[in-house]
TrEMBL record:
Keywords: Signal. It comes from the Bacteria. The keyword Signal applies. InterPro entries: Rhodanese-like_dom, Rhodanese-like_dom_sf. Residues 65-125 form the Rhodanese domain. SUPFAM superfamilies: Rhodanese/Cell cycle control phosphatase. The lineage of its organism: Bacteria, Pseudomonadati, Verrucomicrobiota, Verrucomicrobiia, Verrucomicrobiales. Residues 1-23 form the signal peptide. Pfam families: Rhodanese. This is Rhodanese-like domain-containing protein.
Length: 175
């Protein structure tokens, strides 16, 4: 009988332990270094800008060869080392901050070409697919704009790695 009583009360106890009221949620200590509403507003404001700056593989390839353009890879160093667009600069998204970006790309008017895991298929180790809502291109685009870089172009298509026109290099690239 005690077992039945405990099993009957267990769901209620678990719910009481994990649930919180709106008043309790608002008591969370504020952090002046985190602005979620500002992030959401920035993402909303940049939605049309980002869409207008997505480019084909052919345009990406053409722009790569033009003066004043850099290719930036914001994936992890391990994934970058395995395979990346030839000549790309690397800065892990987790290391984005004003000093690191200014050191890597001092001129904020520089054209920056970005790509991510979700642009390539058929090379799952260096380019593991991310959930589409958190594809690295979206985060990288928003971050670069937030830091003042306005000339950002994003590789648009999903490309089979065996058919890619972009020059690739890294430890997993076969010559």
């Amino acid at each position: 009988m005690k077992t039945i009583a405990i099993l009957t009360l267990l769901p209620a106890l678990l719910c009481a332990e994990t649930s919180s009221t709106p008043a309790q949620q608002q008591k969370a200590e504020p952090n002046p270094r985190i602005d979620y509403p500002g992030f959401v507003q920035t993402a909303t404001d940049l939605q049309k800008v980002r869409e207008a700056n997505r480019v084909s593989e052919d345009d990406f390839l053409r722009m790569m060869g033009e003066s004043g353009t850099v290719v930036l890879d914001a994936r992890s160093k391990a994934r970058f080392d395995e395979m990346h667009v030839k000549g790309a600069l690397h800065l892990d998204l987790t290391d984005f901050n004003a000093p690191a970006l200014e050191k890597l790309i001092p001129d904020k008017t520089t054209r920056i070409l970005i790509y991510c895991n979700n642009n390539f298929k058929g090379a799952e180790r260096p380019f593991p697919a991310k959930a589409v809502q958190v594809a690295l291109n979206v985060q990288t685009f928003i971050n670069l704009h937030t830091y003042g870089y306005r000339n950002v172009k994003e590789l648009a298509p999903l490309i089979e790695i065996s058919k890619v026109k972009l020059p690739m290099e890294g430890t997993t690239v076969t010559k």
